[in-house]
Design goal:
With 484 residues, this protein is α/β, with parallel strands linked by helices. It has 15 helices and 27 strands. The strands form six sheets. It has a seven-stranded mixed beta sheet with strand order 13-16-14-17-19-27-26, with helices on both faces. It is globular, with a radius of gyration of 23 Å. 50% of the residues are buried.
């Protein structure tokens, strides 16, 4: 097995995108390829078929490889939850919350988990494409860094460096990273990729000639133009452009501080007649045709945030006026009558009154629900999943929102009370019929869902990403190293 690291000059340089694109390209070349990220920090998570939790970014990369996601693709996941630090997920299972200072004391134990997991990949694929985290040359962290160069060294691999020209300072990014590396790590480098170029490419004809005097021996393999239409998912959030997309009736998503699984909204982006807005503006919420409360990594803290800004009242008033209000996961919990978390296992501790729009109450326990399932809407079935702390029970007469299937057995899921809906399902909107159901209930006037199911759109997207990278990057050094 060969190992190919995809490192970055910093967070947000485009490592996740480049890793997915290279995975898709290698698959197209007939290579058995798999993705890997030793440690990820993100509240966008995925549940595997056997009930393990991992970062969505690696699940996307697995999809680009034509593989089912497994927790061995992301052995350590950190989920930030505010003042408590982060919840630590190891090989798909939560190990509780940990502050940053305490986490670094676990670094060597977690490295052993990573190293053992890397060994399991030796016989499972021909190429392991390993995404880094942040920058590989954070001098204060390098001795404890388990996600960048250490996995590459462990597998005697090679690496590429991705720099983001869109944020500026590309030559400082590349030359500075090169200067801070030791000779042994430089010797493993296959080259740099300038990512997210926009504008006239003729104005940037030969970055190698400009970089060479300051980083001798560091080849620039190509410049990749920015293509917003080739973005499967953002790992940690959305760009400003992605927070207000489309034209038509407004589907408002409440932008809470600890919102998670933001990608639940992405299937709406290619639909006609709908404007998807992430907002904390009371006027936008009041005028929307439908309001969605998304998942949350700290539900009680986000509920208190709504109250502090008076948005709880705005949402209740909108519901009373007939606006469709939908809660997903943590948002579903907020729509109920009460939330109980006496020990703070899910974030902020305490009891908090919910918005009172659904006859349910939630109690948080140490056990976490992780469940892959099948959703159904108007005869259409597709894959979805649950990932949440807390158990939600009825406090009065309840009508399920729908049925879902686990192991071929149907069960009721979610709650609806008139024009207020709540569900624990992530991926609920990946079916055109599911989105059409909401649009009809909300009274969207000119709505038309994209005719191609979301899963099929993504498969076509990976093929286009592979073609885009192959067209703009000299991949010959990668081919020579991998022997393809």
């Amino acid at each position: 097995m060969k190992a190919l690291g995809v490192l970055g000059t910093g967070s947000g340089a485009g490592k996740s995108w480049m890793t997915a694109a290279l995975c898709a390209w290698l698959r197209r070349e007939g290579v058995r390829v798999a993705p890997f990220k030793a440690q990820n920090m993100s509240n966008n998570a995925w549940v595997t078929l056997d009930g393990g939790e991992m970062a969505r970014a690696q699940a996307v990369q697995a999809e680009a490889c034509g593989l089912l996601p497994t927790v061995e693709m992301n052995p350590v996941l950190l989920k930030p939850s505010g003042g408590m630090g982060s919840q630590v997920i190891v090989l798909g299972r939560a190990e509780g919350h940990c502050a940053a200072r305490d986490y670094y004391g676990r670094a060597e134990r977690l490295w052993q988990v990573v190293a053992d997991t890397l060994e399991t990949w030796r016989s499972r694929c021909d190429v392991l494409v390993m995404e880094g985290a942040g920058s590989p040359v954070e001098l204060n962290l390098m001795a404890r860094d388990i996600a960048n160069l250490r996995p590459v060294r462990h597998l005697d691999g090679r690496w590429l460096l991705v720099g983001d020209i869109d944020r500026g300072g590309i030559f400082a990014q590349l030359a500075g990273t090169w200067a801070l590396l030791d000779e042994a790590d430089r010797a493993r480098c296959l080259g740099a990729i300038v990512n997210r170029f926009r504008g006239d490419a003729s104005l940037f004809p030969d970055p190698q000639s400009w970089l060479a005097p300051y980083a001798p021996g560091f080849p620039v393999l190509g410049t990749v133009p920015l293509r917003r239409d080739l973005q499967p998912e953002e790992e940690d959030g959305f760009s400003a452009a992605d927070q207000d997309r489309g034209q038509g009736d407004t589907l408002a998503w409440v932008r809470t501080p600890h919102a998670s699984n933001l990608t639940d909204c992405q299937p709406w982006w290619d639909d006609a007649g709908v404007r998807v807005r992430w907002t904390e503006d009371a006027d936008v919420l009041a005028r929307a045709r439908a309001i969605v409360l998304p998942g949350s990594k700290n539900t009680i803290a986000d509920l208190r945030w709504l109250r502090a800004r008076g948005l709880d009242r705005v949402i209740r008033d909108a519901a009373a006026a007939g606006t469709l209000v939908v809660g997903l996961c943590g948002g579903y919990q907020m729509l109920g009558e009460w939330l109980h978390d006496p020990t703070g296992v899910a974030g902020d501790a305490g009891d908090e009154a919910g918005l009172g729009l659904l006859p349910v109450a939630t109690t948080f326990h140490a056990a976490k629900t992780l469940r892959a399932t099948e959703a159904e809407c108007d005869g259409d079935r597709w894959s979805a999943y649950e990932i949440h702390m807390g158990e939600t029970i009825a406090t009065g007469p309840c009508t399920p929102l729908h049925q879902v299937w686990n192991d071929g057995t149907p069960r009721p899921e979610g709650t609806q009370a008139g024009r207020v809906w709540g569900t624990y399902l992530h991926g609920w909107f990946e079916s055109p019929r599911s989105r059409a159901r909401l649009a009809t209930a909300a009274g969207f006037t000119d709505y038309k869902p994209h005719a191609v199911p979301w899963a099929e759109q993504r498969r076509a997207l990976y093929a286009a990403m592979a073609e885009h990278v192959a067209a703009h990057v000299n991949l010959d050094p990668v081919r020579r190293y991998l022997g393809i």
